[in-house]
Specification:
Blueprint lengths: L1 E2 L4 E2 L9 H9 L3 E6 L4 E4 L1 H7 L18 E3 L12 H8 L3 E9 L5 E12 L5 E10 L1 H19 L3 E6 L4 E4 L1 H7 L3 H4 L13 H12 L4 E9 L5 E12 L5 E10 L1 H52 L6 H28 L8 E4 H14 L5 E5 L6 E4 L1 H17 L6 E9 L2 E7 L33 H11 L4 E6 L3 E9 L3
Parallel strand pairs: 15-17
Antiparallel strand pairs: 1-2, 3-4, 3-8, 5-6, 6-7, 7-8, 9-10, 9-13, 11-12, 12-13, 14-16, 17-18, 18-20, 19-20
Helix pairs in contact: 8-9, 9-12, 10-11, 11-12
The chain binds adenosine-5'-diphosphate (ADP).
Length: 503
């Protein structure tokens, strides 16, 4: 007989001889080998050689006995000497072994799992003559099993409910998480319809979900209500995916359900608190607005009277007192105006008297006015070359420049220089005001334009209310621009604002 890969040519008598069995063994998709009574390998087929990864010599006392593999391992991964393998035991105890698992180690360090079946062979007088071993590769089966076990463990230990069902709603699997959330045990629920977990008013959702699943679509984070065994409604977030069989056909759905009742409760509480806070804020703003108005009226009278006194006391040495009082009254008046502005901005009632303005003129005049009020700082100004028009409220824009330049002076007591620059690019003017003062810690930069925000830890000699920059940035926003800052602690700050402009 000659054997080629795809064609057998046999002699007429072949089917009657021993050759027949050898050919059978050779063609079998399982490993087959035999040993004599001392464990010397007397025969093995192709598959056995393939699984061992080697070709041991037959009947060779120098070769490994009992098994042709290079090494053997137990299920726990520890090494198993060849004389303790099932084949050795079968010869020793003259016993058959069924479906024993072993692990074969090959010379290239790879391992395969095998299931072995062994029968001892006896001679005509009952004496042991050897053993026959049939073994097959179950590595991929084992790996699949391991993966399945791992997945099953994850599903079991999950705190979420993981449920699978058929397309017509029959529940087919139910994990511990589901038991905890819904109160049904595995036994009570398997085989029941999924609708027992859905309040009647939500039954329609199921057909919508199943339609999606049939189209091989998943549904993610679907927030809804579900029903527990004791009739409680729980807020749930559902993620649903199709389940397919080996042929890729959709046969059901797997649902992961998270109980979000607590989360929804906290969200509702937060919403209620936010609403209360908003109401209180409105009261506060209304109070601030009312108080500022009420304070403004007597202050105007005080101011007018002081001005009269000032005029009448031209050469009086006590005029000094009136002057100092006037300065303080002006400070108070500014503060009250600022508070009124904040109220108006909060209520969206800040009115702008917009006109077309020449930007350079506005900048020159404002800087000059501020320069007159100080002897401690020199304001160095770089103008824009040419005429630039902006549309805006002159007084409000002066207020912005006034606030930023005054801050620059206030927060740089040991330096004399303030640099004010204007640049034009892409239809907007960018103004920068740079000082070389105390700077702002990086972590405070984000909040610097917030209402009432003041950098913590700066000496109390720097008085202020923390509303100037809020007002300034709101005014700039209303003009279609924006305001920002760059600053380094103890080096200085540069405040920028942009405003739309045309040449
Ligand atoms: P304030 O009346 O407190 O100056 P602002 O709103 O104008 O209010 O400023 C908010 C805070 O920003 C100030 O309290 C100060 O801590 C910080 N700040 C503003 N400008 C500067 C600056 N040029 N250098 C350093 N810190 C500044």
């Amino acid at each position: 007989m000659s054997l080629t890969t795809d064609r057998f040519e046999i002699e007429e008598t072949f089917l009657e001889g021993e050759e027949k069995y050898k050919l059978l063994a050779r063609l079998m998709p399982v490993g087959v080998f035999s040993t004599d009574k001392d464990g010397l390998i007397t025969f093995y087929n192709e598959k056995a050689a393939e699984l061992w990864g080697r070709r041991p010599k037959l009947n060779d006392p120098e070769e490994k006995r009992f098994c042709g593999s290079w090494r053997l391992f137990k299920e726990d991964g520890t090494s198993m000497p060849h004389n303790q393998c099932p084949m050795a035991k079968s010869l020793r105890y003259k016993k058959s072994f069924r479906n024993e698992e072993i692990c074969i180690g090959r010379a290239d360090n790879s391992r395969i799992n095998a299931l072995v079946n062994i029968d001892p062979l006896f001679g005509l007088h009952g004496q042991l003559v050897g053993a026959l071993n049939v073994f097959r590769d179950i590595t991929s089966l084992k790996n699949k099993q391991k993966r399945r076990n791992r997945l099953a463990a994850i599903v079991e230990s999950s705190r979420d409910a993981i449920i699978s069902q058929t397309l017509d709603g029959k529940i087919i699997s139910w994990n511990k998480g589901a038991e905890k959330i819904f109160g049904y045990t595995n036994k009570e629920i398997i085989g029941k319809n999924i609708n027992v977990l859905i309040p009647p008013s939500h039954h329609h959702e199921e057909s919508f979900i199943i339609e999606k699943i049939k189209n091989d679509e998943s549904v993610e984070n679907f927030e809804t209500i579900r029903l527990t065994k004791d009739g409680r409604e729980i807020n749930s977030s559902l993620t649903i995916s199709p389940v397919k069989n080996d042929l890729g056909e959709i046969i059901g759905a797997s649902k992961i359900l998270r109980d979000i009742t607590d989360k929804v409760k906290v969200e509702n509480q937060l919403r209620e608190h936010a609403e209360k806070l908003r109401e209180l804020n409105i009261y506060k703003d209304e109070f601030m607005s009312m108080a500022s108005h009420e304070l403004k009226t007597p202050l105007t009278v005080i101011k007018a009277n002081l001005q009269l006194l000032e005029m009448q006391m031209a050469n009086d040495p006590r005029k000094n007192f009136v002057d100092t009082t006037m300065k303080q009254v002006n400070k108070m008046s500014h503060l009250i105006s600022d508070l009124l502005d904040v109220s108006k901005m909060q209520a969206g009632r800040l009115h702008l008297n917009s006109t077309i303005l020449d930007f350079n003129e506005l900048l020159n005049e404002t800087v000059e006015n501020i320069q007159h009020t100080t002897t401690t700082h020199k304001i160095i100004k770089t103008n824009l070359k040419g005429h630039f028009k902006i549309q805006g409220d002159r007084i409000r824009l002066e207020q912005v420049l006034f606030n930023v330049i005054n801050n620059a002076m206030k927060y740089s007591p040991s330096s004399k220089k303030i640099i004010v620059k204007a640049d034009y690019s892409k239809n907007k003017i960018i103004v920068s005001v740079q000082d070389f003062g105390i700077g702002i810690p990086a972590e405070n930069l984000k909040m610097i334009f917030s209402r009432f925000f003041k950098v913590k830890g700066i000496p109390s000699t720097f008085s202020g209310t923390g509303i100037g920059l809020y007002i300034a940035s709101s005014i700039i926003k209303r003009h279609g621009g924006k305001m920002w800052v760059e600053s380094e602690l103890n080096i200085g700050s540069t405040f920028y604002f942009s405003i739309p402009s045309s040449k």
